[in-house]
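Z., the sequence and structure:
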Amino acid sequence: MLLFEPDRTPYDLRWRMFGIDVRVHPMFWLVTTILGWDWYRAGETGAEGVGFVALWVLCVFVSILVHELGHVVAGNIFGSRGHIVLFGFGGLAIGSSDLRSRWQRVVVYLAGPGAQFLLLGVIWLLVYRLELLGGPREQVIRLVERDPAMFAVWMLWAINLFWPILNLLPIWPLDGGQVSRELCEAAAPRNGRRYSLVLSMLTAGVLAAHILMSQRGPGLIPWLNDYFRTGPLTAFFFILFAVQSYQALQEESHRRRNWDDDNLPWERR
């Protein structure tokens, strides 16, 4: 959710891979652990429960790293060198979209979810070709809850299927929201950014309302419950996205008013 790079700390984990600098801020480990603490109950003992939480953190780390690598590699292809920072609720591909061409920026934005879908394809081959999770649904659930390796495979499958889909929604500042902004600005240069922010605010608001209402009923979009089951924490994030979009819309309106005032004909001033 952050669009700026956090300050460096003495506790950052740093390395270089494929010629790309990677930095992991300590808040990444803390926030990811908190978000995955419910998996503690997956183990029958305390030690096993901690192991499942650690696996969750590892799966999130790998998935987000692959996502950001997709952005940076695409940016490098077009000549924009970038680096990766994992922080808080996700990651940043700093500098990867600093490109003059709109279509190149769109490709860079889509490359992150695309990299996750490629990883999903590898997991699909592992799961179905080797028949690791075959059998009735109840049997699969029991296997996942007993076997840490199967838990990791299942978690990687879920993260790299649903997270990139959510990331492609036209919600600012997700990748889909940035693509939406580029397309709206291309179609309507004067008002495109405002249109994209309104779309972002409405999409995030509707999804937040649906999630909250679905806790006690079918929600606003009943068919969505078959594919999108989540809780109040996810609703909170969508509310936050809606508020961010509203604030950005207000800032954009203020900027436009100032620009119009500065460019009024002399006779009207």
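The first strand starts at residue 13 and ends at 17. The two ends are 41 Å apart (CA to CA).

Let me know what you think.
H.
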